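Dear colleague,

Following up on yesterday's call, I've attached the two folding results inline so they're easy to grep. Please treat them as preliminary; we haven't cross-checked anything against experimental data yet. The first protein's sequence and structure tokens come first.
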Amino acid sequence: MGLKIDFIRGTVTVVEPPPVEVEATKVLAAAGDYAAEDVLSESATDGLGTPFVFRHVARKDGGSFRITKTIALLKTTDLVPRIKLFLFTSRPTSELDDNSANTAVLTADRSRYVGRVELPAMSDLGGNSEAIATLDTGSNLPLEGKCATGSDDLYGIAVTEDAITGEAAGMALMLKLFVRQD
């Protein structure tokens, strides 16, 4: 943050830099219909799924952040699920494989757990299905936290709140965080 000083008017204003946009995308395995509360990931093979990795969320290793907005784009049409994004400061031990029942947040992950962004139901207006979570959409935003020592990244597990049918293998899920870095 900076200060803007107007000597003529005698005012001081705190100027906050614009948020940084941090994006992570995965091509989903979509090996079959998703049940409610299934993980969305790139591999359905046991043990091969990975978390979404959001690079440079903080200005420096171990730095603080505040997430103020999240966007999800699903490269398909006619699918309008609600997605929950669980965020962690290091790789979680919770279930990461596609089409598997979500286990986040496990007790083993509690110290690295930042919180959950609740995206509203996606909209399909002819292009990609999309959802936007903001400070006033009941999304648990803002989420504030501090990255792990030696890291400026966050790790995410995307989970569908709704059953999804009509999915196609190879559809991409893009998640973008709008982050204020302290």
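Below is the second protein, in the same order (sequence, then structure):
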Amino acid sequence: MFGRKSKRGASLATVLVSMAILAIVATMFTAIAMRSYQYSYAKLCKQQAYYTAISTIESYYQTIRQSSEHLSSMISALEDAYEKAKSEENGLHVDPTRVSVKVGSSGGADSSGMLVDGGFFDTYLGECELYVRYANSNRSEISIEAHATYNGYTETARAKVARTNLAASELKKIFDNTFCLQ
């Protein structure tokens, strides 16, 4: 009779140890699965923010390519911002590549003073801000820059705009996002 009781105790101990091991393994797999999910979700949000930024740049490029009036207003806004920066520095040298103009934003309801109206951003996911600036010091190239945020993850994309196909092909050798205004 004593042998039987100790056998029952050993069975109970074996079951408890087995259940503890299974609980530890299940917790480990759950933690791995959650970490994988968090990584995948973060990567998805970053990709969405990047694609929103790229799409915004491409849409704005099409806008300035199709409308010479919009292109000239963008260039005059850049020139005005550059002249203002020079006057603030009392005529000292100002790097034109540091001067930027905010084209528009999906976050603000008031689009006064912006180069595009609020409806420009209606189809994009997340928040997006679009800027233009000169890409070189002699002000012959323009850079379009977009900062997009999706669910707390922010990505930035930029593209250079060249005036001729030859300049665009040379830029494409070193810079992925290059457009031509010809």
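For the second protein, one point worth flagging: The radius of gyration is 29 Å.

Best wishes,
A.L.
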